[in-house]
Amino acid sequence: MPHHICKNCGTQHAESDNPPTECAICQDERQYVGWDGQHWTTLAELRRSHENTVRLEELGLYGIGTEPSFAIGQRALLVSHPAGNVLWDCIPLIDDGLVDMVQGIGGISAIAISHPHYYTSMVEWAKAFDCPIYLHAADRQWVMRPDSAIEFWEGETKDIGGGLTLIRCGGHFDGGTVLHWPDRTAAAVPATQTAAARRPR
Question: What is the pLDDT of residue 184?
Answer without folding.
Answer: 66
